[in-house]
Amino acid sequence: MHELSIAVAVVEQVEEAVRERGRAVASLTLRIGELAGVVPEALDFSFGLAAEGTALAGARLLIETVEARGRCEGCGREAPTGMPPVLWCAGCGAPLALLGGRELEIVRVTLADGPAAGEDDGPLDATGGGTPDGSDETPAGEGADDGPLPAPSGPPVRDEEASHVPHR
């Protein structure tokens, strides 16, 4: 069950990012391709174990599944590969170049209302700063080179988008 090692690695990365601010994590969104070889239910179970005793304890794990898609090297047609993947074109029979479906990414970290472990500090996302729009929610990878952003004001934004499938 390699999902446990994936869960441990994700928890370690996110906890390192939020440790300085002392904020608990309310939810964590991962983007996982259908060809990544990850069983969402096993990852959800493993995440619960890996998060125990960390800033992610009790956090909701949200998983966005990415459909596997390919482009025909012969005719240029784009189509889903299906599961198990069919890696040749249904139209002309040429091989497909895989466009997506192997992703395994931390997409978003949403911080809880209150501090973790009795600390009271500003918000932090997985990249090390807040967001310019004032939310506690930031897509991973944005703002990492811009340095810390000002602390947002107002109530925290809840991560309950319809495109997310809650596994918790």
Counted by DSSP, the helix tally is 2
Radius of gyration: 18 Å
User: N-to-C terminal Cα separation, in Å?
Assistant: 19 Å
Low-confidence stretches: 117-135, 141-168
Strand order of the largest sheet: 7-6-1-2-8
N-to-C order of helices and strands? HEHEEEEEEE
Descriptive account of the structure:
It is a single chain. This protein is α+β, with helices and mostly antiparallel strands and 168 residues long. Helix content is 17%, strand content 28%. It contains two helices and eight strands. The strands form two sheets. It has a five-stranded mixed β-sheet with strand order 7-6-1-2-8, with helices on one face. Strands 4-3-5 form a three-stranded antiparallel β-sheet, with no helix packed on it. Helix 1 packs across helix 2 (40-51). The protein is elongated, with a radius of gyration of 18 Å. 33% of the residues are buried.
Short characterization:
By secondary structure, the protein is of the alpha+beta class. It contains 2 helices and 8 strands, in the order H-E-H-E-E-E-E-E-E-E.
